[in-house]
Amino acid sequence: MTERRTVLITGAGTGIGAACARMYAEEDARLVLVGRRREPLEQVARDTGGLILVGDAACPDTWDGFIRQIREHYGRLDVLLACAGGHGLGSATQTSPATWADALRSNLDSAFYSARACLPLLQASAGNIVLIGSIASLAAGPEVCGYTTAKHALLGLNRSLARDYGPHGVRVNAVCPGWVHTPMADAEMLPLMDAYGETLPQAYARVCTDVPLRRAAQPEEIAKVCRFLASGDASIMTGATVVADGGSSIVDVPTLAFAHLETRHE
Question: What sequence ranges are listed for the domain Ketoreductase (predicted)?
């Protein structure tokens, strides 16, 4: 009989992390739900069960207690899904030292300290790490200097972990979503909604105008990509960056003017 896998998810209270929790719960995985706010974690746990660990994944001191509880409750760990993240708004001259530090802490430090703490357990189980990046890991949006820098660095972390721990049986991969219907993305739509008098769905349609699939992802779609990377079906993949953005990153930006010209003539 195959032993149930134990899956730890940071940022498990909302968005992609919550979708991952619900998906793995359907597969009877044993869950560890990590986040800074208890209430969202408890809401997810009502649907999924699992061990709730409240704390900041970007704080190294937090992880000693977390790992001790995981060992006591489950005795093993098979998958780490590093979904915790945050903002990093502003151009370089608009970014204060505190905003810069917070962008790196929430988007990069959270993944690094999560992985560092979990690696001994993952080596014992020949487990998997999946890091949640962004298309901001590949290209720069306007005035998101901290976020873009941190998400680019996350791919360096992905490759370094894969290089060092592949010989120990641990696979590490990254997923780079585009727009996803999450509370954080909803908040990013507010300036467009205010500027153009649009509803939330209309704002999402606007930001997806030049996305080949013409829509944002649902969190469950990104969760399925994470599940694939952490499964035996991806057994030869490590250090990979899987882009799940509806085709955003394949668009040749300098030719968009021609596409818009064609649209106007239709």
Answer: 5-182
| Token pair 């968009």 in the structure block, residue | 256
Please give the structure tokens belonging to residue 60: 């190294």
The Cα–Cα gap between 109 and 102 comes to 9
Judging by DSSP bridges, how do beta strands 51-54 and 30-35 pair with one another?
parallel
Select which of 24, 74, 113, 147 is catalytic: 147
Is residue 10 within 8 Å of residue 34, measured between CB atoms? yes
pLDDT one-digit tens code per residue, 86-120: 999 999 999 999 999 999 999 999 999 999 999 99
Cα distances (Å, whole numbers) of residue 178 to 105, 139, 213: 21, 11, 11
Residue 147 catalytic? yes
According to DSSP, the β-strands at 241-244 and 171-177 are parallel
Predicted pLDDT at 241: 98
The phi, psi pair for 171, rounded to 5°, reads -100, 140
Domains and CATH numbers, the chain: 6-180+218-248 (3.40.50.720)
In this prediction the pTM is: 0.93
